[in-house]
Amino acid sequence: MAECLHNYGILLIRDPRAVQKDNEEYIDLMEKYFESRGDMLYSGREVQDERPDCFYQVGVCPKENEIARDHSSKIRAYDDVNRPVSPLVPVFDAKWRFMWKIGERPVEASDNFPQVIPTDFPEWEHKMDKWGYKLLNAVKVVAEMAAVGMGLEKEAFTQRMEGGAHLLAPTGSDLVKNDVGAIFAGFHYDIAFMTIHGKSRFPGLYVWTRENKKMQVKVPEGCLLIQSGKTFENITGGYILAGFHEVVYTEQTKEAMLKAQAEDKSHWRVSSTLFSHFRYNVDCTPMPELKHLYSEEDAKAYGSMTAFDILMTELDATNMVQTV
Questions:
Q1: For the chain, which has fewer Cβ within 10 Å, the N-terminal or C-terminal residue?
Q2: Do residues 194 and 142 make contact, with C-beta atoms less than 8 angstroms apart?
Q3: CA atoms of 17 and 40, how far apart (whole Å)
């Protein structure tokens, strides 16, 4: 587990508590939600459930609000085979996102915003919590296994996750209003400790390994995808790197969309995603217990930051801190 995260920044797992049927039911819900909010936007009505004053950390974030951090220097370094589709100058993502808190947070936490519950979806809270906790519990097992694999106590990471700002954060991308070449999620890494996804109904996700090799992600039926995030990178002194990835509208995506249309199915690409985080006040300085995995020079490069410091730094760089 630890070696896979070190080398690739991703891994695939199967958790009997989070089966494919659960994922499918959840995607059904989110397809209906994004379709309804897309209709509001396209018809000129006010989009419900939007909370820019909370940095979009709860509620819906419509398309063309989020933008990837500038990674132009890294993109330039790739050869033609491994270069991202994302342009050198980041563009606003064509995807929508909804943020739903999973688990309790300390009352004093600065990012402890009230939940946003869409009034036209009476089953919302139950279904969001049901799938969100299944994903979070799967991450916790991976976190324990990774800790043991790195020579730490089993609870080293999960203790730091207690009270974390865990977010069920599905995205929705309209495959009719967009076309091949659209950037749904520009070349980026995640802020989280670890990100977990259920299988999407449409292709389009690409990841980069530690050796900067580009790979298309194909999640087997019934499996979950784990990706390492920036907080994980910080606390391990770079032994685990935040995995770069992008989501783009490809010819394969369009083929799948046309097939879905012919079968009278939704044309929205939904990602079934959860961001797991450390508690806001956790010190994410590289752990001394892991000094056998990183150098002193590595440790100095990361410096001393809390989980909240990392969160706000990255949100500011991705246009989410618009009202401060």
A1: C
A2: yes
A3: 36
pLDDT tens for 267-318 read: 999 999 999 999 999 999 999 999 999 998 888 899 889 999 998 888 877 7
For residue 139, give the amino acid letter.
V
- Over residues 9-58, the pLDDT tens digits come to 999 999 999 999 999 999 999 999 999 999 999 899 988 899 999 989 99
Q: Following CA atoms 149, 153, 157, 161 in sequence, which dihedral angle do they give, to the nearest 10 degrees?
A: 150
7: three-class secondary structure by DSSP: helix
Residue 93 pLDDT exceeds 80: yes
Cα separation, 5 vs 7, in Å, equals 6
pTM above 0.90, yes or no: yes
The distance in angstroms from the start CA to the end CA of the chain is: 40
pLDDT at 324: 35
